[in-house]
Write a structure and sequence with these properties.
two-stranded antiparallel ribbon, p53-like_TF_DNA-bd_sf, RNA polymerase II transcription regulatory region sequence-specific DNA binding, alpha+beta, Ig-like_fold, RHD_DNA_bind_dom_sf, about 120 residues
Length: about 120
C-alpha cells in the first residue's frame, strides 16, 4: 500500500514533463514491488506458521457472520523440516470437530531424521 500511495502522488503531467512515459512508470512500479517483496521475504520464516481460530454463525438467510475476533495460535513449525521439527504428523483420526469439545483426536507421528 505504501508503494501505491507514493506513486499516486506523482501526476502524469509531471512524469511526462520529465520525459518518462506511462509504460516506464508501470515497469518501474513492477520492479519496485518485486524488490520490496524480495526484501520482505528475507524476514519471513517459511518453516513456521500461526493458525487462526474464529467463530461464525449463520443468519436465517444463510449468510455467514463473524461471532468473535480472530485468535492466533503460537507459531507452529513445519514438522517435515528437520531443523524445525522432530516429529511429522502423517495421520489424524479427525479433521474437524465440535466447539463443545469432549472429542478425542488421535495423531500418528513419525520421527524426522536430519539428512546431510
Amino acid at each position: 500500500m505504501g508503494l501505491d500511495t507514493n506513486l499516486s502522488k506523482l501526476s502524469t503531467v509531471r512524469l511526462l514533463g520529465k520525459g518518462k512515459s506511462i509504460g516506464q512508470l508501470k515497469k518501474a512500479h513492477t520492479v519496485q514491488i518485486r524488490l520490496t517483496t524480495e526484501n520482505e521475504m528475507k524476514c519471513i520464516n517459511v518453516n513456521s506458521a500461526s493458525l487462526s481460530f474464529q467463530g461464525f454463525y449463520y443468519e436465517p438467510n444463510n449468510i455467514l457472520y463473524p461471532l468473535t475476533d480472530s485468535i492466533y495460535s503460537q507459531s507452529v513449525n513445519n514438522s517435515r523440516n528437520a531443523s524445525t521439527g522432530k516429529l511429522e504428523i502423517y495421520r489424524s483420526s479427525k479433521s474437524t470437530g465440535s466447539t463443545l469439545g469432549d472429542e478425542e483426536v488421535w495423531l500418528l507421528v513419525q520421527k524426522v531424521e536430519k539428512s546431510t
